[in-house]
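Record pair follows.
FIRST:
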Amino acid sequence: MFPVFFRGVHGNATKSLFFLGHQVKLHIITNLADRTKLGRGLPVVDFDAYRLGVDDVADEKLDVLAKELKTAFTEVGFVYLKNNGISQQEVDAIMDISENFFLLPDKEKMPFRRGNYSEVNHGWVCAGSERLNPQRASDLKEAFNITTLNPNVKWPSNDVVPDFREKLLSFFQRCKDLSLRVLRVLELSLGVAPDVFLGKHSMVGEEQNGTTLRLLHYPPVRPESVKEEQVRCGEHSDFGTITMVFQGPGGGLQVLDRTGNYITAPTIPGTVLINIGDLMQRWTADVFVSAIHRVLLPPPGDMSTRQSIAFFLHPNDDALITCTDGSDKYPPVNALDYLNERFTHSYGKK
Protein backbone atom coordinates (compact mmCIF):
# COMPACT_ATOMS: atom_id res chain seq x y z
CA MET A 1 0.00 0.00 0.00
CA PHE A 2 2.84 2.40 0.84
CA PRO A 3 5.67 2.78 -1.68
CA VAL A 4 9.18 1.57 -0.87
CA PHE A 5 11.82 2.18 -3.48
CA PHE A 6 14.71 0.28 -1.94
CA ARG A 7 14.38 -3.42 -2.58
CA GLY A 8 17.77 -4.64 -1.42
CA VAL A 9 21.27 -3.81 -0.20
CA HIS A 10 24.67 -5.30 -0.79
CA GLY A 11 26.64 -7.02 1.93
CA ASN A 12 26.63 -10.14 4.05
CA ALA A 13 24.40 -9.17 6.98
CA THR A 14 20.96 -8.89 5.43
CA LYS A 15 17.49 -10.04 6.30
CA SER A 16 14.10 -9.81 4.66
CA LEU A 17 11.76 -7.39 6.41
CA PHE A 18 8.26 -6.22 5.56
CA PHE A 19 7.33 -2.56 5.39
CA LEU A 20 3.58 -2.23 5.26
CA GLY A 21 3.20 -5.02 2.77
CA HIS A 22 6.49 -4.50 0.91
CA GLN A 23 9.39 -6.91 1.30
CA VAL A 24 12.79 -5.26 1.51
CA LYS A 25 16.25 -6.51 2.35
CA LEU A 26 18.07 -4.42 4.92
CA HIS A 27 21.39 -4.55 6.70
CA ILE A 28 20.90 -5.79 10.24
CA ILE A 29 23.43 -3.41 11.80
CA THR A 30 22.40 -2.50 15.32
CA ASN A 31 25.58 -0.83 16.51
CA LEU A 32 27.21 2.38 15.37
CA ALA A 33 30.63 0.75 15.54
CA ASP A 34 29.84 -1.04 12.26
CA ARG A 35 30.01 1.76 9.72
CA THR A 36 31.32 -0.03 6.64
CA LYS A 37 29.87 0.69 3.19
CA LEU A 38 27.77 3.61 4.41
CA GLY A 39 27.79 5.52 1.14
CA ARG A 40 28.44 9.19 0.45
CA GLY A 41 27.14 12.21 2.32
CA LEU A 42 23.82 14.02 2.11
CA PRO A 43 23.54 17.29 0.16
CA VAL A 44 23.65 20.71 1.84
CA VAL A 45 21.69 23.65 0.34
CA ASP A 46 22.16 27.27 1.35
CA PHE A 47 18.66 28.71 2.03
CA ASP A 48 19.90 32.21 2.85
CA ALA A 49 18.04 33.84 -0.05
CA TYR A 50 14.66 32.74 1.38
CA ARG A 51 15.48 32.30 5.06
CA LEU A 52 12.96 33.31 7.71
CA GLY A 53 12.81 37.09 7.85
CA VAL A 54 13.41 37.58 4.12
CA ASP A 55 10.18 38.56 2.39
CA ASP A 56 11.47 40.05 -0.86
CA VAL A 57 13.44 37.51 -2.87
CA ALA A 58 14.37 37.66 -6.54
CA ASP A 59 12.81 35.08 -8.85
CA GLU A 60 16.26 34.03 -10.05
CA LYS A 61 17.31 33.09 -6.52
CA LEU A 62 14.11 31.12 -5.96
CA ASP A 63 14.75 29.28 -9.22
CA VAL A 64 18.21 28.27 -8.00
CA LEU A 65 16.78 26.99 -4.73
CA ALA A 66 14.04 25.13 -6.60
CA LYS A 67 16.57 23.31 -8.79
CA GLU A 68 18.79 22.41 -5.82
CA LEU A 69 15.94 21.07 -3.70
CA LYS A 70 14.43 19.14 -6.60
CA THR A 71 17.76 17.44 -7.24
CA ALA A 72 18.13 16.53 -3.58
CA PHE A 73 14.59 15.21 -3.19
CA THR A 74 14.61 13.20 -6.42
CA GLU A 75 18.03 11.62 -5.88
CA VAL A 76 18.17 11.10 -2.10
CA GLY A 77 15.02 12.36 -0.37
CA PHE A 78 17.00 14.21 2.31
CA VAL A 79 18.82 17.57 2.38
CA TYR A 80 20.42 19.86 4.96
CA LEU A 81 19.33 23.51 4.83
CA LYS A 82 21.85 25.99 6.19
CA ASN A 83 21.17 29.69 6.80
CA ASN A 84 17.48 28.90 7.14
CA GLY A 85 16.61 31.57 9.72
CA ILE A 86 16.32 29.29 12.77
CA SER A 87 19.47 29.76 14.82
CA GLN A 88 21.40 27.08 16.64
CA GLN A 89 20.80 29.08 19.82
CA GLU A 90 17.03 28.67 19.35
CA VAL A 91 17.42 24.93 18.81
CA ASP A 92 19.67 24.53 21.85
CA ALA A 93 17.11 26.29 24.05
CA ILE A 94 14.39 23.83 22.94
CA MET A 95 16.76 20.91 23.52
CA ASP A 96 17.31 22.13 27.09
CA ILE A 97 13.57 22.42 27.78
CA SER A 98 13.01 19.01 26.22
CA GLU A 99 15.65 17.44 28.44
CA ASN A 100 14.07 19.00 31.54
CA PHE A 101 10.78 17.31 30.71
CA PHE A 102 12.19 13.88 29.89
CA LEU A 103 14.28 13.79 33.08
CA LEU A 104 11.07 13.91 35.13
CA PRO A 105 9.98 10.61 36.74
CA ASP A 106 7.51 8.73 34.54
CA LYS A 107 4.72 9.20 37.09
CA GLU A 108 5.01 12.98 36.65
CA LYS A 109 4.79 12.63 32.86
CA MET A 110 1.78 10.30 32.90
CA PRO A 111 -0.89 13.06 33.12
CA PHE A 112 0.34 14.32 29.73
CA ARG A 113 0.38 10.95 28.01
CA ARG A 114 -0.72 10.66 24.39
CA GLY A 115 -4.23 9.25 24.33
CA ASN A 116 -5.51 11.58 27.05
CA TYR A 117 -6.53 14.14 24.43
CA SER A 118 -9.32 12.44 22.48
CA GLU A 119 -8.41 12.33 18.78
CA VAL A 120 -5.54 14.83 19.04
CA ASN A 121 -2.07 13.33 18.58
CA HIS A 122 -0.70 15.33 21.48
CA GLY A 123 1.31 14.48 24.57
CA TRP A 124 3.95 12.18 25.99
CA VAL A 125 4.78 8.87 24.31
CA CYS A 126 6.50 6.58 26.82
CA ALA A 127 9.48 4.40 25.92
CA GLY A 128 8.47 1.16 24.21
CA SER A 129 5.13 2.51 22.89
CA GLU A 130 6.20 2.64 19.25
CA ARG A 131 7.60 0.11 16.84
CA LEU A 132 8.22 1.84 13.52
CA ASN A 133 9.65 -1.34 12.02
CA PRO A 134 7.12 -4.09 12.85
CA GLN A 135 9.82 -6.74 12.40
CA ARG A 136 11.92 -5.37 15.27
CA ALA A 137 11.31 -4.99 18.99
CA SER A 138 9.85 -1.67 20.19
CA ASP A 139 11.90 1.49 19.70
CA LEU A 140 14.21 2.63 22.49
CA LYS A 141 12.92 6.18 22.67
CA GLU A 142 10.27 8.43 24.21
CA ALA A 143 8.66 11.53 22.78
CA PHE A 144 6.41 14.51 23.39
CA ASN A 145 4.05 15.51 20.56
CA ILE A 146 2.68 19.02 19.99
CA THR A 147 -0.06 19.04 17.36
CA THR A 148 -2.33 21.90 18.29
CA LEU A 149 -2.03 25.52 19.40
CA ASN A 150 -5.36 25.21 21.25
CA PRO A 151 -4.86 26.85 24.68
CA ASN A 152 -7.25 24.35 26.31
CA VAL A 153 -4.90 21.39 25.78
CA LYS A 154 -3.17 20.37 29.02
CA TRP A 155 0.54 21.18 29.31
CA PRO A 156 3.15 20.76 32.04
CA SER A 157 2.96 23.84 34.27
CA ASN A 158 5.79 26.29 34.78
CA ASP A 159 6.30 24.71 38.21
CA VAL A 160 7.03 21.38 36.51
CA VAL A 161 9.02 22.58 33.47
CA PRO A 162 9.50 26.37 33.28
CA ASP A 163 8.50 27.95 29.94
CA PHE A 164 7.65 24.56 28.39
CA ARG A 165 4.39 25.54 26.69
CA GLU A 166 5.42 29.09 25.77
CA LYS A 167 8.74 28.13 24.18
CA LEU A 168 7.39 25.10 22.31
CA LEU A 169 4.43 26.95 20.83
CA SER A 170 6.79 29.68 19.64
CA PHE A 171 9.14 27.11 18.09
CA PHE A 172 6.17 25.33 16.47
CA GLN A 173 5.32 28.59 14.72
CA ARG A 174 8.91 29.06 13.57
CA CYS A 175 8.98 25.55 12.12
CA LYS A 176 5.60 26.08 10.47
CA ASP A 177 6.81 29.26 8.78
CA LEU A 178 10.00 27.63 7.48
CA SER A 179 8.23 24.49 6.27
CA LEU A 180 5.71 26.53 4.26
CA ARG A 181 8.57 28.38 2.59
CA VAL A 182 10.04 25.04 1.60
CA LEU A 183 6.67 24.01 0.14
CA ARG A 184 6.56 27.16 -1.96
CA VAL A 185 9.99 26.33 -3.39
CA LEU A 186 8.86 22.76 -4.11
CA GLU A 187 5.84 24.08 -6.01
CA LEU A 188 8.21 26.13 -8.15
CA SER A 189 10.51 23.15 -8.67
CA LEU A 190 7.68 21.07 -10.16
CA GLY A 191 6.12 23.86 -12.18
CA VAL A 192 2.72 23.30 -10.57
CA ALA A 193 0.19 26.02 -9.88
CA PRO A 194 0.72 28.15 -6.77
CA ASP A 195 -1.04 26.80 -3.69
CA VAL A 196 -1.21 23.21 -4.95
CA PHE A 197 0.70 22.30 -1.79
CA LEU A 198 0.31 25.44 0.32
CA GLY A 199 -3.47 25.54 -0.09
CA LYS A 200 -3.80 22.16 1.60
CA HIS A 201 -1.72 23.23 4.62
CA SER A 202 -3.82 26.21 5.68
CA MET A 203 -4.77 24.78 9.09
CA VAL A 204 -1.35 23.87 10.49
CA GLY A 205 -1.55 24.23 14.28
CA GLU A 206 -5.31 23.65 14.38
CA GLU A 207 -7.09 20.45 15.30
CA GLN A 208 -8.11 19.92 11.66
CA ASN A 209 -4.47 19.29 10.71
CA GLY A 210 -2.09 16.55 11.86
CA THR A 211 1.17 18.51 11.70
CA THR A 212 3.28 17.61 14.75
CA LEU A 213 6.28 19.12 16.50
CA ARG A 214 7.95 16.20 18.24
CA LEU A 215 10.55 16.22 20.98
CA LEU A 216 12.52 12.96 20.95
CA HIS A 217 14.64 11.51 23.73
CA TYR A 218 16.73 8.35 23.44
CA PRO A 219 17.78 7.27 26.94
CA PRO A 220 21.07 5.53 27.75
CA VAL A 221 21.20 2.01 26.34
CA ARG A 222 21.86 -0.73 28.88
CA PRO A 223 23.16 -3.81 27.01
CA GLU A 224 21.54 -6.28 29.38
CA SER A 225 18.06 -4.92 28.59
CA VAL A 226 18.38 -4.72 24.77
CA LYS A 227 16.43 -7.35 22.86
CA GLU A 228 17.69 -9.12 19.76
CA GLU A 229 18.00 -6.72 16.78
CA GLN A 230 16.47 -3.87 18.82
CA VAL A 231 17.51 -0.34 17.85
CA ARG A 232 16.72 3.15 19.02
CA CYS A 233 14.36 3.75 16.10
CA GLY A 234 13.51 1.07 13.56
CA GLU A 235 13.66 1.40 9.79
CA HIS A 236 10.74 3.44 8.48
CA SER A 237 9.67 6.22 6.14
CA ASP A 238 7.76 9.27 7.36
CA PHE A 239 4.01 9.62 6.89
CA GLY A 240 3.29 13.12 5.67
CA THR A 241 4.46 15.93 3.39
CA ILE A 242 7.94 16.85 4.62
CA THR A 243 9.82 16.43 7.90
CA MET A 244 12.29 18.87 9.42
CA VAL A 245 14.80 17.44 11.92
CA PHE A 246 17.10 19.28 14.31
CA GLN A 247 19.62 16.81 15.73
CA GLY A 248 21.50 16.87 19.00
CA PRO A 249 25.14 15.77 19.15
CA GLY A 250 24.41 12.07 19.79
CA GLY A 251 24.48 10.83 16.18
CA GLY A 252 23.05 7.54 14.97
CA LEU A 253 20.67 8.60 12.17
CA GLN A 254 21.12 6.76 8.87
CA VAL A 255 19.35 7.12 5.52
CA LEU A 256 18.94 4.37 2.92
CA ASP A 257 19.84 5.77 -0.51
CA ARG A 258 18.71 4.61 -3.94
CA THR A 259 21.81 2.45 -4.41
CA GLY A 260 20.92 0.43 -1.32
CA ASN A 261 23.61 1.90 0.93
CA TYR A 262 23.06 3.58 4.26
CA ILE A 263 24.27 7.18 4.51
CA THR A 264 25.19 8.51 7.92
CA ALA A 265 23.40 11.79 8.64
CA PRO A 266 25.64 13.56 11.16
CA THR A 267 24.69 16.56 13.22
CA ILE A 268 25.65 19.77 11.39
CA PRO A 269 25.15 22.72 13.77
CA GLY A 270 23.12 25.56 12.30
CA THR A 271 21.28 23.38 9.80
CA VAL A 272 17.95 21.60 9.62
CA LEU A 273 17.68 18.21 7.94
CA ILE A 274 14.62 17.95 5.70
CA ASN A 275 13.16 14.81 4.14
CA ILE A 276 10.22 13.85 1.96
CA GLY A 277 7.28 11.94 3.47
CA ASP A 278 5.19 9.20 1.89
CA LEU A 279 2.23 11.45 1.13
CA MET A 280 4.48 13.82 -0.82
CA GLN A 281 5.89 10.90 -2.77
CA ARG A 282 2.36 9.88 -3.74
CA TRP A 283 1.41 13.49 -4.43
CA THR A 284 4.32 13.90 -6.88
CA ALA A 285 3.82 10.45 -8.49
CA ASP A 286 7.27 9.32 -7.29
CA VAL A 287 9.18 12.38 -8.48
CA PHE A 288 10.21 13.08 -4.88
CA VAL A 289 11.57 10.16 -2.86
CA SER A 290 10.49 9.20 0.66
CA ALA A 291 13.59 7.45 1.97
CA ILE A 292 13.79 4.79 4.67
CA HIS A 293 15.82 5.82 7.71
CA ARG A 294 16.65 4.59 11.23
CA VAL A 295 18.55 5.37 14.42
CA LEU A 296 21.03 2.74 15.57
CA LEU A 297 22.36 1.88 19.00
CA PRO A 298 25.44 3.74 20.24
CA PRO A 299 28.80 1.94 20.38
CA PRO A 300 29.27 -0.54 23.27
CA GLY A 301 30.01 1.28 26.50
CA ASP A 302 28.51 4.58 25.31
CA MET A 303 25.86 5.48 27.89
CA SER A 304 25.01 8.89 26.46
CA THR A 305 21.52 10.04 25.61
CA ARG A 306 20.42 11.28 22.19
CA GLN A 307 18.01 14.12 21.48
CA SER A 308 16.33 15.45 18.38
CA ILE A 309 13.43 17.70 17.43
CA ALA A 310 11.26 16.78 14.45
CA PHE A 311 8.55 18.81 12.74
CA PHE A 312 6.24 16.55 10.71
CA LEU A 313 4.29 18.65 8.22
CA HIS A 314 0.92 17.18 7.17
CA PRO A 315 -1.88 18.42 4.92
CA ASN A 316 -5.24 19.46 6.37
CA ASP A 317 -7.34 16.50 7.49
CA ASP A 318 -9.91 17.00 4.72
CA ALA A 319 -7.30 17.31 1.95
CA LEU A 320 -7.68 14.91 -0.97
CA ILE A 321 -4.24 13.98 -2.27
CA THR A 322 -4.06 13.31 -6.02
CA CYS A 323 -1.02 13.06 -8.30
CA THR A 324 0.21 16.49 -9.36
CA ASP A 325 0.98 15.24 -12.89
CA GLY A 326 -2.65 14.28 -13.46
CA SER A 327 -1.84 10.58 -13.64
CA ASP A 328 -3.56 7.76 -11.76
CA LYS A 329 -0.28 6.25 -10.52
CA TYR A 330 -1.75 6.40 -7.02
CA PRO A 331 -5.47 6.61 -6.29
CA PRO A 332 -6.75 9.69 -4.45
CA VAL A 333 -6.41 9.42 -0.69
CA ASN A 334 -7.78 11.47 2.18
CA ALA A 335 -4.95 12.91 4.31
CA LEU A 336 -6.52 12.05 7.68
CA ASP A 337 -7.41 8.49 6.65
CA TYR A 338 -3.85 7.95 5.47
CA LEU A 339 -2.36 9.32 8.69
CA ASN A 340 -4.61 7.18 10.88
CA GLU A 341 -3.72 4.06 8.92
CA ARG A 342 -0.04 4.77 9.48
CA PHE A 343 -0.64 5.31 13.21
CA THR A 344 -2.23 1.86 13.28
CA HIS A 345 1.07 0.33 12.18
CA SER A 346 3.11 2.27 14.78
CA TYR A 347 0.81 1.99 17.81
CA GLY A 348 -1.57 -0.85 16.97
CA LYS A 349 -4.40 1.71 16.92
CA LYS A 350 -4.91 5.40 16.17
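SECOND:
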Amino acid sequence: MRFNEKELVFLSRQPSERAAELGMRGPKRGDVVKRRVVKLIVNFLFYFRTDEDEPIGALLLEQCRVEREDEHAFSIVFLDEAERKYLFECDSQEQCVEWIDAIVKASYEFMRKNLIYYRTEIHRLTGKDPLEQYGISTVVFLRRPHKHTLSLLFGVFTCFFFFFSLPVSITVHSDLCNLSFNVSYGEMRNILL
Protein backbone atom coordinates (compact mmCIF):
# COMPACT_ATOMS: atom_id res chain seq x y z
CA MET A 1 0.00 0.00 0.00
CA ARG A 2 1.39 3.41 -0.94
CA PHE A 3 0.98 6.54 1.12
CA ASN A 4 1.78 10.15 0.42
CA GLU A 5 4.18 11.47 3.08
CA LYS A 6 2.30 14.78 3.41
CA GLU A 7 -0.98 12.92 3.98
CA LEU A 8 0.60 10.79 6.70
CA VAL A 9 2.07 13.84 8.44
CA PHE A 10 -1.34 15.53 8.26
CA LEU A 11 -3.02 12.41 9.69
CA SER A 12 -0.43 12.22 12.49
CA ARG A 13 -1.50 15.70 13.65
CA GLN A 14 -5.16 14.71 14.05
CA PRO A 15 -6.64 13.99 17.49
CA SER A 16 -5.56 10.55 18.66
CA GLU A 17 -7.58 7.77 20.25
CA ARG A 18 -4.62 7.07 22.52
CA ALA A 19 -1.20 8.69 22.98
CA ALA A 20 1.65 8.15 25.42
CA GLU A 21 5.39 8.04 25.78
CA LEU A 22 6.39 4.38 25.61
CA GLY A 23 9.54 2.37 25.27
CA MET A 24 9.81 1.05 21.71
CA ARG A 25 12.15 -1.40 20.00
CA GLY A 26 12.05 -1.73 16.22
CA PRO A 27 12.16 -4.94 14.20
CA LYS A 28 15.84 -4.85 13.21
CA ARG A 29 18.31 -7.13 14.90
CA GLY A 30 20.28 -5.15 17.45
CA ASP A 31 17.62 -2.46 17.91
CA VAL A 32 17.42 -1.18 21.47
CA VAL A 33 14.43 0.14 23.41
CA LYS A 34 14.08 3.91 23.00
CA ARG A 35 11.50 6.28 24.45
CA ARG A 36 9.02 7.33 21.77
CA VAL A 37 5.78 9.28 21.74
CA VAL A 38 3.27 6.83 20.30
CA LYS A 39 -0.11 7.94 18.90
CA LEU A 40 -2.96 5.73 17.73
CA ILE A 41 -5.00 7.50 15.04
CA VAL A 42 -7.71 5.46 13.31
CA ASN A 43 -5.76 2.34 12.24
CA PHE A 44 -2.28 3.88 12.19
CA LEU A 45 0.21 3.78 15.03
CA PHE A 46 2.55 6.76 14.64
CA TYR A 47 5.76 7.08 16.60
CA PHE A 48 7.82 10.21 17.19
CA ARG A 49 11.07 11.19 18.83
CA THR A 50 10.14 12.74 22.17
CA ASP A 51 11.34 16.19 21.08
CA GLU A 52 9.89 16.29 17.53
CA ASP A 53 6.47 17.01 15.99
CA GLU A 54 6.82 14.96 12.81
CA PRO A 55 6.57 11.18 13.00
CA ILE A 56 9.62 9.08 12.30
CA GLY A 57 7.42 6.14 11.38
CA ALA A 58 3.93 4.72 11.16
CA LEU A 59 2.51 1.21 11.39
CA LEU A 60 -0.67 0.35 9.49
CA LEU A 61 -2.50 -1.88 11.96
CA GLU A 62 -3.90 -4.36 9.44
CA GLN A 63 -2.99 -8.01 9.06
CA CYS A 64 -1.11 -7.91 12.34
CA ARG A 65 -1.31 -9.62 15.70
CA VAL A 66 -0.89 -7.90 19.07
CA GLU A 67 0.77 -10.11 21.67
CA ARG A 68 1.32 -9.60 25.37
CA GLU A 69 5.04 -10.08 26.11
CA ASP A 70 4.94 -9.60 29.89
CA GLU A 71 3.07 -7.47 32.46
CA HIS A 72 4.31 -4.17 31.05
CA ALA A 73 5.06 -4.98 27.40
CA PHE A 74 3.31 -5.97 24.20
CA SER A 75 4.42 -6.54 20.64
CA ILE A 76 2.96 -6.10 17.18
CA VAL A 77 3.77 -8.79 14.62
CA PHE A 78 2.71 -8.58 10.98
CA LEU A 79 1.23 -11.78 9.61
CA ASP A 80 3.02 -11.65 6.25
CA GLU A 81 6.38 -10.84 7.90
CA ALA A 82 6.61 -12.78 11.17
CA GLU A 83 10.18 -11.57 11.71
CA ARG A 84 9.00 -7.93 11.68
CA LYS A 85 8.20 -7.51 15.38
CA TYR A 86 7.83 -4.20 17.22
CA LEU A 87 8.05 -4.23 21.03
CA PHE A 88 6.40 -1.60 23.23
CA GLU A 89 7.06 -1.16 26.95
CA CYS A 90 4.42 0.56 29.08
CA ASP A 91 4.67 2.20 32.49
CA SER A 92 2.05 -0.06 34.10
CA GLN A 93 0.13 -3.26 33.56
CA GLU A 94 -3.10 -1.28 33.22
CA GLN A 95 -1.60 0.94 30.50
CA CYS A 96 -0.41 -2.16 28.66
CA VAL A 97 -3.91 -3.72 28.69
CA GLU A 98 -5.45 -0.43 27.48
CA TRP A 99 -3.00 -0.17 24.57
CA ILE A 100 -3.57 -3.78 23.50
CA ASP A 101 -7.33 -3.31 23.59
CA ALA A 102 -7.19 -0.04 21.63
CA ILE A 103 -4.90 -1.48 18.93
CA VAL A 104 -7.03 -4.59 18.46
CA LYS A 105 -10.15 -2.42 18.07
CA ALA A 106 -8.43 -0.06 15.61
CA SER A 107 -8.17 -2.55 12.76
CA TYR A 108 -10.48 -2.53 9.78
CA GLU A 109 -11.20 -6.24 10.36
CA PHE A 110 -12.50 -5.56 13.89
CA MET A 111 -14.74 -2.73 12.64
CA ARG A 112 -15.94 -4.91 9.75
CA LYS A 113 -16.97 -7.67 12.15
CA ASN A 114 -18.87 -5.09 14.22
CA LEU A 115 -20.59 -3.77 11.10
CA ILE A 116 -21.73 -7.29 10.20
CA TYR A 117 -22.92 -7.93 13.75
CA TYR A 118 -24.90 -4.66 13.97
CA ARG A 119 -26.31 -5.14 10.49
CA THR A 120 -27.44 -8.62 11.48
CA GLU A 121 -29.09 -7.36 14.66
CA ILE A 122 -30.95 -4.57 12.89
CA HIS A 123 -32.15 -7.07 10.30
CA ARG A 124 -33.28 -9.42 13.06
CA LEU A 125 -35.11 -6.64 14.92
CA THR A 126 -36.68 -4.82 11.97
CA GLY A 127 -36.79 -7.43 9.19
CA LYS A 128 -34.99 -4.97 6.88
CA ASP A 129 -31.42 -4.83 5.67
CA PRO A 130 -30.12 -1.36 6.67
CA LEU A 131 -27.69 -1.28 3.73
CA GLU A 132 -30.20 -1.98 0.94
CA GLN A 133 -31.00 1.71 0.51
CA TYR A 134 -27.34 2.24 -0.46
CA GLY A 135 -27.33 -0.57 -3.02
CA ILE A 136 -24.94 -2.66 -0.98
CA SER A 137 -25.37 -6.40 -1.46
CA THR A 138 -26.88 -8.62 1.20
CA VAL A 139 -24.79 -10.71 3.59
CA VAL A 140 -25.76 -13.85 5.46
CA PHE A 141 -27.55 -12.89 8.67
CA LEU A 142 -26.80 -14.79 11.84
CA ARG A 143 -29.13 -14.82 14.83
CA ARG A 144 -27.75 -13.44 18.11
CA PRO A 145 -29.98 -12.04 20.84
CA HIS A 146 -29.31 -8.46 21.99
CA LYS A 147 -31.29 -6.11 24.27
CA HIS A 148 -29.95 -2.63 23.44
CA THR A 149 -31.65 -1.53 20.23
CA LEU A 150 -30.56 2.12 20.42
CA SER A 151 -26.90 1.22 20.83
CA LEU A 152 -27.24 -1.22 17.93
CA LEU A 153 -28.63 1.50 15.68
CA PHE A 154 -25.91 3.94 16.69
CA GLY A 155 -23.25 1.25 16.19
CA VAL A 156 -24.31 0.33 12.67
CA PHE A 157 -24.59 3.96 11.57
CA THR A 158 -21.17 4.65 13.06
CA CYS A 159 -19.82 1.80 10.94
CA PHE A 160 -21.49 3.32 7.83
CA PHE A 161 -19.57 6.54 8.39
CA PHE A 162 -16.22 4.82 8.77
CA PHE A 163 -16.60 2.31 5.94
CA PHE A 164 -18.67 4.03 3.32
CA SER A 165 -18.32 7.76 4.05
CA LEU A 166 -22.03 8.17 3.36
CA PRO A 167 -24.25 10.93 4.71
CA VAL A 168 -27.05 9.27 6.65
CA SER A 169 -30.44 10.30 8.02
CA ILE A 170 -31.01 8.62 11.35
CA THR A 171 -34.45 8.35 12.90
CA VAL A 172 -34.91 6.46 16.14
CA HIS A 173 -38.30 5.88 17.74
CA SER A 174 -38.52 4.27 21.15
CA ASP A 175 -40.52 4.51 24.36
CA LEU A 176 -37.82 6.82 25.73
CA CYS A 177 -37.32 9.28 22.89
CA ASN A 178 -37.73 10.21 19.24
CA LEU A 179 -34.59 11.36 17.51
CA SER A 180 -34.13 12.48 13.93
CA PHE A 181 -31.04 14.07 12.41
CA ASN A 182 -28.84 14.18 9.30
CA VAL A 183 -25.13 13.73 9.69
CA SER A 184 -22.23 13.62 7.22
CA TYR A 185 -19.07 11.58 7.63
CA GLY A 186 -16.98 14.59 8.70
CA GLU A 187 -19.53 15.73 11.27
CA MET A 188 -19.89 12.26 12.78
CA ARG A 189 -16.11 11.77 12.83
CA ASN A 190 -15.78 15.02 14.82
CA ILE A 191 -18.47 13.88 17.24
CA LEU A 192 -16.90 10.44 17.73
CA LEU A 193 -13.31 11.57 18.07
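COMMENT: The first strand starts at residue 18 and ends at 25.
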